[in-house]
Design a protein that fits this description.
The chain has 898 residues and is mainly alpha-helical.
Length: 898
């Protein structure tokens, strides 16, 4: 079908087709449902006059405005009309020999008010007039009586001609209605009523039916005909006449038989506070069980909700089993509302590209280039309306004589706002704008962000298809991406549009609401999970809207760093990232910017070289935007980066500044100083600090680090086990994984069998964490466990050395070489051991970790190396004896098993 708007937009010979992409799943659903309907109405037990049987003669498609519902119904209409109109990728329907009569009615025009319900009824009857070509007596008599009463002096012929209903077939209906009147007169042998009004004829027919005359029953044998013909011919009566129409359709001769499929589009336009029009349309569906209905609208059809009892005639899951939510699944979960209720989803990226490629063509080739199509696709979030608006923009730019570029489509469209807000109340629009500030929300969060005291508006809003639901998420509701982008970035010309101050105040409310949820906690969400989720949303809000009150974010930042888990915090941006990806991002220029950059730098250090971490932290400190305690946080983690890079003096200086400040990180900084003392070989100083550290200073782990270089494996293991137990008591999975990995490391020297189990547990604990250094440490522990064997220890060490270098974790290199020295000493490979000692000497040339050279020499029973003296806790011969004993014990173990 030609797109006329595109055709008339340019003088160039541009091919402009109304592209239709995918939707094969929807066709399969409709075809299957019609097939089931045909089997149902063909069954001997089916009775068109049964008013109590559940109804399953419909299927509902709902979705956000612009998602393609009307296009789908138009394509369904043409596909059901003629097989050659069906898209090639749509399969042929299973039914054969059945005449399907598709009747599409746009309720935006045909049923916008209760009085226009008659247009719906007339449209159905007119379509049947063209198909069956004969009167439908009982219905036609009732309709003619209604018309004469409600439209006195306006012949039906004139009305049909004036409105143009059903085109050329419109003139057939008045004749068939008159034929029905004449047929009634002839059947009842009432020649005196020829030319009389329909009212007189129906009165005579009712009397004949009451007297049970055979001719009358043959003419209008539906059990409820007399009652309907006697009723006052008003709109209420008209809404029950479809029962007569269904009865007439059921008794059509085989050659005239047809199964109407009514496609009711834009169902949301029938909504009103009292559901008056919806009640009339529901009767239509219920009273015509032999017809099939395809309904599309923005909202889920709620007829199966028992809460509507009294507002509609037929409600509840027993009446509409196909519309009821599936057992165990929320009504809106994943857009699901029952087996016959389906959410129209967005296009996939491939579908978007296909749509745009076929929408405009020139000489058989796509007019929109691939790079422009990629930008449009990214910005659309799969919403077909956005694609159409982008096509219009493409043609508009082209008409000016300029060639469109990808940057022209890094753009949002105000028309999306108009479509979205058109049928929302003032409170719903207020909540929608507030919710657009949030990546995800629940009723409380949306309500507080909007500054409302009641949830009613938010509850109504989440029933809209622009809101998707994931019942298993922390905050279950998400606003459609394209709509959210348009609300926040496009020019808003609505009467109640927000000012920048309105957006700023809403962002402050949203940030405060997130902080309150984080403080209160939730029984259904683990504390750490809620913390990270609140941080992600809070950082973006504070940064995008330049908010000043960072109090709860500061507390959350320290809580985030308290355990070494390092969940990713997506870096927020000042504005939406350009789809073209061009242009550098500005540096931090607000405290919120600086806080976001600080936490991202700390979290990203698991994936970046420690040199990059130190640079980022130095830069954020240089802005002067961090408050005192946040500056200490940056200083502390920069000092840790310096420690990892082997810059012991710089690390000590940073740790000392933080410790002297006496803030939240003072204990952790004292732990850092104790570790730096150990790194320099001053074990007594490190040990003296342990009693001052406590849990926050990870005292047990610090003690384990002091004990194991002495070869005191039992006491080191006990210390790390105590650290693991304490971490479990404090629900600190990151610290627990670190302690467990060190247990695996120290036991690997003495008991490889136990180490195997300890390593398995360590990897299990690390699997869900982002701890790069600890993971590499576990690999080193595996080398120690396999020392002396032929399990490719040397080759694995070579790979591991590269990984350690790439990560910028210089402190791990001496440990890796010590593990290799243990392997070569056990094997008695003196040349390999000498080469390893040379590398170890190079890695510790600055004096840091020099004690590893003493340990490696003791393993090989070699003389004590020259260099800085080590201040051991025990005398050096004792330490040397312990390490040499570990080597000989491993040798005996291996020889005994070979």
């Amino acid at each position: 079908m030609t797109d006329l708007r595109a055709l008339f937009s340019s003088n160039d010979p541009v091919g402009s087709n109304e592209a239709f992409t995918n939707r094969q799943d929807q066709w399969d659903l409709v075809a299957t449902a019609i097939e089931e309907h045909l089997r149902h109405i063909a069954a001997p037990a089916f009775n068109v006059e049964d008013l109590e049987a559940p109804r399953n003669n419909l299927i509902v498609f709902h979705g956000v405005g612009g998602v393609g519902k009307s296009t789908l119904l138009r394509k369904l209409e043409s596909s059901l009309t003629a097989a050659d109109q069906r898209p090639v990728h749509w399969g042929a329907p299973a039914w054969a020999g059945e005449k399907i009569l598709p009747i599409r009615i746009d309720l935006a025009r045909s049923a916008s008010t209760g009085s226009d319900f008659e247009r719906v009824v007339l449209t159905i009857r007119l379509a049947l007039a063209a198909t069956v070509g004969r009167p439908l007596p009982s219905f036609d008599l009732a309709l003619r009586r209604y018309w004469d009463a409600q439209h006195p002096g306006e012949p039906l012929e004139e009305y049909v001609r004036r409105t143009g209903l059903v085109g050329k077939f419109g003139q057939m209906l008045p004749g068939q209605l008159q034929a029905a009147v004449s047929e009634a007169i002839g059947a009842l042998q009432l020649p005196g009523l020829v030319g009389s009004a329909a009212g007189q004829v129906t009165t005579a027919l009712v009397q004949a039916l009451r007297e049970r005359r055979e001719r009358a029953r043959a003419l209008a044998g539906c059990a409820r005909t007399a009652a309907l013909l006697e009723a006052e011919p008003d709109l209420e009566a008209l809404s029950f006449y479809p029962h007569l129409l269904a009865w007439e359709i059921s008794r059509l001769p085989a050659k005239k038989a047809a199964v109407p499929v009514l496609l009711l589009d834009t169902f949301e336009d029938t909504s009103d506070r009292h559901r008056d029009t919806e009640r009339l349309l529901q009767r239509l569906v219920w009273l015509m069980p032999n017809c099939f209905f395809v309904i599309s609208g923005r909202n889920r059809l709620q007829w199966a909700d028992t809460a509507l009892q009294g507002q509609l005639d037929y409600t509840g899951p027993a009446a509409w089993p196909g519309l009821a939510p599936q057992v165990g699944q929320p009504a809106r979960a994943a857009g699901q509302g029952g087996a016959r209720q389906h959410l129209i989803g967005d296009f996939s990226e491939q579908d978007c590209d296909t749509y745009l490629a076929h929408r405009l063509t020139q000489d058989g080739q796509p007019l929109i280039s691939p790079d422009i199509r990629a930008v449009i696709t990214q910005r659309s979030h799969g919403l077909p309306l956005h694609l159409d608006l982008a096509v219009a923009r493409f043609l508009e730019i082209r008409r000016t004589g300029r060639t469109p570029t990808p940057a022209d489509f890094d753009h949002t469209f105000p028309a999306l706002i108009a479509r979205t807000l058109s049928d929302l109340t003032a409170d719903e629009r207020h909540v929608l704008r507030s919710a657009s500030l949030l990546d995800a929300f629940d009723l409380d969060l949306a309500t507080h962000a909007a500054g409302l005291t009641h949830q009613a508006a938010a509850r109504r809003l989440i029933e809209r298809p622009m809101i998707t639901e994931d019942p298993y998420a922390i905050w279950p509701y998400h606003l459609h991406g394209a709509i959210r982008t348009a609300l926040r970035t496009a020019d808003d010309h609505t009467e109640d549009r927000w000012t920048p101050a309105d957006w700023h105040r809403a962002a402050e409310r949203a940030l405060a609401a997130l902080g309150q949820q984080r403080q209160d906690g939730r029984a259904d969400v683990p504390g750490r999970t809620l913390l990270v989720a609140c941080l992600r949303q809070g950082l973006r809000l504070a940064r995008d809207h330049r908010l000043d009150d960072l109090s709860w974010l500061t507390d959350a930042a320290f809580a985030y760093t308290d355990d070494s888990v390092w969940e990713p915090l997506a870096p927020p941006t000042h504005a939406l990232v350009s789809a073209s990806g061009t242009g550098p991002h500005p540096g931090p220029d607000t405290p919120a910017d600086a806080l976001a950059e600080l936490l991202v730098a700390i979290g990203r250090r698991q994936h970046e070289h420690r040199e990059r971490t130190a640079e980022r932290l130095t830069a954020v400190l240089g802005t002067g935007l961090l408050s005192g305690e946040l500056a200490e946080l940056a200083l502390y983690y920069r000092a840790k980066a310096h420690k990892d890079l082997g810059r012991t003096d710089a690390a000590a200086d940073g740790m000392r500044q933080v410790a002297d400040a006496g803030g939240r990180l003072a204990v952790r900084a004292r732990r850092g100083l104790a570790n730096l003392a150990r790194i320099r070989g001053d074990f007594p100083t490190a040990l003296a600090a342990v009693p001052t550290l406590g849990w926050k200073g990870r005292h047990h782990r610090v003690l384990g680090h002091i004990r194991w270089p002495h070869g005191d494996i039992d006491r080191a293991t006990a210390a790390f086990e105590a650290a693991r137990t304490e971490a479990e008591q404090h629900d600190a999975p990151g610290e627990r994984a670190i302690a467990q990995t060190h247990i695996a490391l120290v036991t690997a020297f003495a008991d490889p069998a136990r180490a195997d189990d300890e390593l398995a547990l360590a990897h299990q604990l690390l699997a869900h964490l982002d701890q790069r250094a600890t993971t590499l440490l576990a690999h080193v522990a595996a080398l120690v466990r396999d020392a002396g064997t032929d399990r490719d220890v040397t080759d694995r060490a070579t790979v591991l050395r590269t990984e350690i270098t790439v990560a910028g974790l210089a402190w791990l290199t001496p440990l890796l070489e010590t593990a290799l020295a243990f392997h070569h000493a056990v094997r008695g490979a003196q040349d390999d051991l000498a080469a390893t000692l040379d590398r170890l000497h190079e890695a510790t040339a600055n004096g840091d970790f020099a004690y590893y050279r003493h340990i490696a020499a003791a393993m090989g029973d070699l003389p004590q190396p020259a260099g800085p003296a080590i201040r051991w806790l025990d005398d050096e011969p004792t330490v040397r004896t312990r390490w040499r004993t570990l080597v000989t014990t491993r040798q005996h173990r291996l020889h005994g098993t070979q």
